């Protein structure tokens, strides 16, 4: 590996060290691209499987559409290996021109200078600005008053349903959509009706050993109270106890053996729905291809608003500029063009189930005909991300800590208040530590 730049700041050194905490550094470095025409842009991402195939197609399209740049992708392992490698590349002067990050991870990277902010004026010149994104998604890209990430999508938690089973249960309207439910009692009644027509359960929900699955449903229900969890650096977590307990208690009510299996892991829940044995499934939009491949009759919708406020847990794959000590002006400007080009051509990204963040795509007539994607596209206007903190976000330990606190209550029907209190104790212990990526404590979200 090349040695770190002599111009690297003390804060960047701290940031790089912080990103290594609890993870293993991957060996090897991506060699720098050689200068030529078209200019080569290094692009790192963590998309694999169907998402990776779709991204390859999008890159082929933008590469073929112009002759000024050619994007060379590097795909790294999801989670800690990816985020560690990205942090060290930004610290050591080997960063790619563009990379994908989950929007929820930006709060842990921006403080120490691991990311460069986007020039919003240049983006606007290319047709990418606040007016072309759902408000909560555009706002999530900001940290410390600057734009650090530009979302490609939103990938929310949704409710899939077997149209044959739900039709037999009498819970579909004349358009074949689920009857609306406006409170927990109505939703429980609907799911019990579906259970009566299903071979297995009314609802498949897998959570065992999966803190992310538990958190996704909990935070959807909690934020539907019109509330957010707040994690002030150096302070105590702020979580409304009554709303948190009510949300967790509803999750317990679903796991009664009739509506949903009391003990189920994620893969078992996916299999139950995919084989037509259950009527509904709580999952992420990323399982769309799985259900299409299974050949079952299904549709999808946003999770019903049960506590008064439209809200659903989500994250976003977002474009970031990993820090470069001395970025090449030509390549930096071409990076802006690449991101704008890909956003404008992101219709095919919906095939992966994700909701494209660029509004001209989702507001197009062609997208309106895309089913079931168009049936949950409105979720992008009501996304609830992880509360911003240096230790939250996809692939972090935060959601696992939630699962460790509440899984026992879901399994045994134990006191939800005690489970919530245990979760807050875990979070407060982490909040008491300074953000290692911002040792001077000068940055605020």
From TrEMBL:
Transmembrane segments: none annotated. InterPro entries: Bact_solute-bd_prot1, SBP, TAT_signal. SUPFAM superfamilies: Periplasmic binding protein-like II. It holds the Pfam family SBP_bac_8. Gene3D superfamilies: Periplasmic binding protein-like II (3.40.190.10). PANTHER family: ARABINOSE-BINDING PROTEIN-RELATED, BLR3389 PROTEIN. This is Extracellular solute-binding protein. The lineage of its organism: Bacteria, Bacillati, Actinomycetota, Actinomycetes, Micrococcales.
